[in-house]
Amino acid sequence: MARPANRYPAAMASNHLYLVDGSGYIFRAYHRLPPLTNKHNEPVGAVYGYTAMLWKLADEVHKADGPTHMAVVLDKSSHTFRNDLYDKYKAQRPPPPEDLIPQFPMIRDATRAFSLPCIEEEGWEADDLIASYAKAALAQGWQVTIVSSDKDLMQLIEPGLDLYDTMNNRRLGAEHVVEKFGVPPVQLGEVLALMGDSVDNVPGVPGVGPKTAAKLITEHGDLEAVLAAAPDMKKGKLRENLIEHAEMARLSRKLVTLACDVPLPEPLDGLALQGIPEAPLRAFLEHHGFRSLLARLGAVADAPQPAPAAGVALPEDPPCDHDGYEAVTDLAALERWAAAAREQGFVALDTETDGLGPMAGLVGISMALAPNRACYVPLGHRGGDLLADTPVQIPIDQALAVLKPMLADPAVLKIGHNIKYDLSILARHGVVVAPIDDTIVMSFNLDAGRHGHGMDELAATHLAHSCIAFKDVVGTGKAQKGFHEIGLREATRYAAEDADVTLRLWRRLKPRLSPEQATRVYEMVDRPLVPVLSGMERAGIKVDRKTLSRLSAEFATQIAALEGEIHGIAGTPFTIGSPKQLGDVLFEQMGIKGGRKGKSGVYSTDVNELERIAADREAGAGAELARKVLDWRQLSKLKSTYTDSLQQEINAETGRVHTSYGLTGAQTGRLSSNDPNLQNIPVRTETGRQIRDAFVAEPGNVILSADYSQIELRLAAHMADVPQLRDAFLRGDDIHNMTAQELFGEVNRDTRGRAKTINFAILYGISRWGLAGRLEIAPDEAQAMIDRYFDRFPGIRTYIAETLSSVRENGFTTTLFGRKTHFTRIKSSVQHERQGAERAAINAPIQGTSADIIKRAMARMNPALAEAGLSDVRMLLQVHDELVFELPESLVDRAKPVIQHVMATAAEPLVKLTVPLGVEIGTGTSWGAAH
DNA sequence: TCAGTCACG
DNA sequence: GACGTACGTGACTGAT
């Protein structure tokens, strides 16, 4: 990593001491990295992160002003002088997570493997030891780097001493402290004392946060001066608090002060780097199976069993060189990058925007051609003197004109991580991007169920790399900036890294697709869907604001009335929306029997419980109250989640609501929908259904809804080979009636309802207790019913047994199209975890195949419509087994058979089903009317 | 940030 | 006998 040579004024210093805040690091690593386990089944996520970090530091030895001395500093005891000052200090800290505890000793192993000294001392926090070493080294004229991002340690920053945040690859100097806390490092202790710290239980002054603290300290100089000036301040809460809590503030000042004069357990010279003997390090890495690190050690990848998610052995990639990325601000340079991409035939790209969602504005584009060969093209940066280092940008139209032919060139593969987003943004500038590869989809097709698929997590897992966190670039909360306000240098570091990392991930993931049998689902199901979803997101659906606001007003009136009645019955006002308070009212004050407490000690007040009370004749007024709370709950839910919020989601430009679809959200392969979620718009109750009337077609158009009928049961009939079910579907019989006839020998409302419940229970992986609860019968009876079901439909029993034996053996299930879902808990020694995994594994092939089929229908829909001269038919929404379209009224009769045909034949020719897929279609001026 | 609740398939 | 024993999601609320 190139750094300016004049970074430190005292550059003549020959010795450079690195002090690693080991305790701080391990907590951050634990929370940021996936919960990996090694081959001994020990949790090692944090250890892996820690080891990769030490490796990175060891690499710095070769640099111009790299470390000559290094030590890892750890917390040893829980009791320090701060506890004597204040007994509540760090008192309410929860114990470390269970699977982190065994990793503490491993951290010491890792440190020893690198032959680094480990400093820990009874009675002192790591921070105090670090401060003492730092001061001693500075006094000798050494340079010091503290490897940490702890805010308390930032107090130590001065010329010759900086902090190094390895997770984000950032050096933190005095500027950073000023930016973050509004004061230079020497005054940071004063600010921290005023602010307090709820995690460590440093009291501070109530009502004073970072902003107020910085303002006070800047104005008065230090804490004592602030306290002295308090009586003269203008009357108000601040003045009061400063006077009342002056002593707590003084105590806080002592708590945040670092001890700089701790006797050094090891002399400075003892920290000199000796070089790393290979044998112990290799032994350590092999013990844990850290293959990517072993590979860097020069090991041949001959481990007997490849670690599941470790990727393919590749020659070592160099670490990301953030300052080596190019900022492209003139046309000639941009043309060179476009030409190089065409020359090479593939390019990774990423777009930066001023917001979230498919309708955000374009701010810049980054590209990567090879590791560390990446650039950023700023296009929409604007605003104040923040951008002092931003030279002229290429006008957006000119830049896109240069990139457009390359982005549309069928000979150039465009690689993105969640490229659907980039497709949407660029499409709104008239830029077509094709062909594409998507590393988030690849990861999902390879590793669903093993870990998440976000870029940061994949970089950590596959590349042992910590990406610059977006939050560290733009900030958080109110002070958060738009990316267009970020200066060019920092924007380039962040954006080009994203493209670089995407390219590196692609080189790891793409070669795994074929050997791991993921090519089919990637090429035939998920990848073709990416541009289709982008189109649907951009299309959006028209939502009528008036309908929603009318409903909001109606609901508000009813909610207010219910509130009064509920408080009346309770005899006291309380927050109805608080399960805790409601539980107390019902079960303590009103004395209703049978309350069940959850693990947090709160009474359950969910629908089942309230309905039980409502039907309980002994509950008296409690039954009435429960009924009213149920109504209140329903109306509050509808109002807050739908009629109120949805109005906010109407895009000002288009007058439509644009959801985002997640391709990798659901383990089974289903899509998810968010911001807003349009897959859970009410339909089951009459009141809720009114909300669907707000989803409307443009004048002259209609909404068309097409849904698969009973698709999961049909697939179960096919996959489990159940002749009676299959024949019933072939004949077009009512499937629940048929089940009722088989199970109970007669069909009526009651037996049909029970049969329906059992049919669904089968899809979800049944247990006698679950079914017993649903049917309100005894577990024994439920078991008898399950046995009878299995006897009548023996294929189901076989399907379940085979699915379970396969998932236990392979660790994953597959759909008819080859989609894998991994179940890491299938062999858990914790029974309920294992049983949960078993039920999910029984369901996954069925739910997943259904998802595969509708995805294929979606990918084929637009070409089929175009073929039929129906390009004006727009596909807007997918709700798992339903597709929603908007089309000119005049085209309805021609569109219906095309849509019906595409959906019904979507499995073919890859999969030949032995049951027909039924598709039902309705139309109307609104989504509500189309059902 | 978590737990509880509830909207959907 | 526990496990708030049916699968998969996302959003909102109150409490910490």
Strand-helix topology:
Blueprint: E1 16-21, H1 22-32, H2 45-59, E2 69-73, H3 81-85, H4 103-113, E3 118-119, H5 126-139, E4 143-147, E5 161-165, E6 170-172, H6 174-181, H7 185-195, H8 210-220, H9 223-229, H10 237-244, H11 246-256, H12 278-288, H13 291-296, E7 326-327, H14 331-344, E8 346-353, E9 362-370, E10 373-378, H15 396-408, E11 413-416, H16 419-427, E12 436-438, H17 439-447, H18 455-463, H19 470-474, H20 488-513, H21 519-539, E13 541-543, H22 545-570, H23 579-589, H24 607-614, H25 621-648, E14 656-657, E15 660-662, E16 672-674, H26 686-689, E17 695-696, E18 701-709, H27 711-719, H28 723-731, H29 735-744, H30 749-764, H31 768-775, H32 779-792, H33 794-810, E19 812-814, E20 820-822, H34 831-867, E21 874-878, E22 882-888, H35 892-904, E23 918-924
Parallel strand pairs: 1-2, 1-4, 2-3, 4-5, 7-10, 8-11, 11-12
Antiparallel strand pairs: 5-6, 8-9, 9-10, 13-14, 13-17, 15-16, 18-22, 18-23, 19-20, 21-22
The chain binds a DNA duplex (9 and 16 nucleotides) through helix 23, helix 25, strand 16, helix 30 and helix 31.
Outline:
One of its GO terms (biological process) is double-strand break repair. Keywords: DNA damage, DNA repair, DNA replication, DNA-binding, DNA-directed DNA polymerase, Exonuclease, Hydrolase, Nuclease, Nucleotidyltransferase, Transferase. By secondary structure, this protein is α/β, with parallel strands linked by helices.
- Structural class comes to alpha/beta
* Shape designation: globular
Biggest sheet strand line-up: 3-2-1-4-5-6
Average pLDDT over all residues? 88
Q: Approximately how much helix is present in the residues?
A: 40-55%
EC number: 2.7.7.7
Subunit structure: Single-chain monomer with multiple functions.
InterPro entries: 3'-5'_exonuclease_dom, 5-3_exonucl_a-hlix_arch_N, 5-3_exonuclease, 5-3_exonuclease_C_sf, DNA-dir_DNA_pol_A_CS, DNA-dir_DNA_pol_A_palm_dom, DNA/RNA_pol_sf, DNA_polI_H3TH
Catalytic activity: DNA(n) + a 2'-deoxyribonucleoside 5'-triphosphate = DNA(n+1) + diphosphate
